[in-house]
Write the structure tokens for this entry.
Amino acid sequence: MANENSLLVPWDFTKLSEFALEAALRLTSKSGEKIVLVHIVENLGMVHDAGRKLVAVAETVLEKHGVELEVTVRAGNLFRTIHEVAHELHARLMIMGTHGIKGMQKYTGSFALKIIENARVPFLVIQEQVNGNQLLNLVIPVDVKFDRKSMLQWVQYLSQLYTCKLHFFVRGIDEKVIQTKLNEHLKFMQNAAEMNNLPFDIIYAETKGSFTEHIIQYAKNVNADMILISSVGHLNMSDYVLGVPEQNIIANWAKIPVMCVNNHEN
């Protein structure tokens, strides 16, 4: 049975879930962590057939990659059941494909965002096939809502598997109180990077314009392999209608993978 080192991949038999699995395989080739495919169906009558199909996927992966996967099929509400499975399996990370924001999702919230909301397990969101680089360019936006301890944990995790270059992208703002808080976050991460011998640079965003758009554009310019952001937290309907910055980063137009580090007490 899977343990706290499991990588959980929600599977819906689409190309996007294949991209998510490829990303999981890339991680586990370095970490040795177990991969679990999980598929959620609407009712119990659908479990057997879905399970048979999921086992076939696992057999194909074993034959092609030599990696043995675990599979599980559950009946229930996707947005609730996926978290129940992650909790039961003590998953370390969930890796999920998303189409981004399309049509009515611009007004009701992206599919990925609805799953990530209030999740206790961090998510890695994939929009297209990931590259196989051994060097990871990580863009880390530094804003007021920045969980530096959880962020450091995941930077250390990734740096143990890959050669990482960190780009601390700091919100540009004129308010002194907020500047002080941002500098505290930045100093903490800078010290940690130096202690771990991780190369980094510090970039300050322009004060004008959208910080979210500045993040995505910078990440695109440096060919970032991943953007790491802090938790989206609890959202209400007004957040979905008006939009939240995390939504546009998670479903960014540059299609850069995004790790959403959630920090919720158990």
